[in-house]
Specification:
The chain has one domain (about 1-25, about 65-240): Rossmann fold, CATH 3.40.50. It has helices at about 25-40, 100-105, 120-130, 145-155, 190-200, 230-240; strands spanning about 1-5, 65-70, 75-80, 85-90, 110-115, 140-145, 160-170, 180-185, 210-215. The protein is globular and about 40 Å long. By secondary structure, the protein is an alpha/beta fold. The protein contains 6 helices and 9 strands. Strands 1-9-8-7-6-4-5-3-2 form a 9-stranded mixed β-sheet, sandwiched between helices.
């Protein structure tokens, strides 16, 4: 286990997530998102010349902050971006709480889907439905609070479905968690810090677990807002993108001792 504690100015970079460049955009999301982007910024294409040269492909710019809703496996979800990699965010009562991380991931060229708080069966069904529309047949999972525990459990139970996991303040140590590339974010004054230590110790042999510890007592989706949240968002984005190569170089995180419910 590697425990990362913020200390310097550049957000961390490491290399845990598996990359699948051959994935194609998700069918359920791309049509509506491309239409929205086209209406907002327009399509640019080269017209055919008088000598009959073939028309160049149209280019579309997708706004990573733009959202749309759709239904996946009978559940209404919110989505950002478009890309060949799919990230499923689980937890929270309002998808908007995921917006800072979702926007960062979408700007990195990913399709991001936020699922409201749901049971383990619904999480698995949505993940499976999303994975079926990718060439690799896998998704990346991120969860907060109880849903952080749920995504760890799904990754442990179905490693062929999940390629990487990020957990914000997991509430329980899940048996088998840590075999996949796993990023855990906790505040060092929260109850989740002990859970993160347990998961890290259990997964130490795999070398796949990294714990990002920030000061204070915030938990869950509150780690994505307020002081120091930018470093957390950048770290998780880079971990899931597989480009974080300096895990000991972190932006400083101010102390926040205000208790926040998990």
């Amino acid at each position: 286990m590697l425990v990362v504690r913020p200390s310097r100015s550049n957000p961390a970079r490491s290399n845990p997530a598996r990359s699948n460049p051959a994935r194609r955009p998700l069918a359920v999301a791309v049509t509506s998102l491309v239409a929205t982007a086209a209406a907002a910024v327009g399509l640019s294409a080269c017209a055919p010349s008088e000598v009959g040269e073939p028309e160049a492909a149209a280019t579309v710019s997708v706004d990573p902050t733009a959202t749309s809703t759709t239904e996946v496996a009978g559940v209404t979800v919110t989505q950002w971006g478009a890309g060949r990699d799919v990230v499923l965010l689980a937890g929270g009562e309002d998808a908007e709480a995921w917006a800072p991380l979702a926007t960062s991931l979408a700007a990195d060229g990913r399709l991001v889907v936020a699922l409201p708080a749901a049971g383990a069966d619904a999480l698995a069904d949505v993940a499976q439905a999303l994975a079926e529309d990718t060439d690799a047949g896998t998704v990346t999972l991120a969860g907060a609070g109880r849903q952080a525990t749920a995504v760890l459990a799904l990754g442990a139970a179905q490693p062929d479905l999940v390629d990487a996991v990020a957990a914000l303040s997991p509430t329980e140590a899940v048996e088998g968690a840590g075999a996949l590339p796993t990023t855990i974010v906790v505040a060092d004054g929260s109850e989740s810090a002990e859970v993160a230590d347990a998961i890290g110790m259990a997964g130490a042999a795999s070398g796949q677990v990294q714990v990002y510890s920030v000061a204070g007592r915030r938990s869950g989706l509150d780690l994505l807002a307020g002081a120091g949240s930018g470093a957390v968002i950048t770290y998780v984005t880079d971990r899931l993108a597989g480009v974080a190569d300096d895990p000991l170089s972190q932006a400083p995180t101010p102390t926040d001792d205000a208790p926040v419910d998990a």
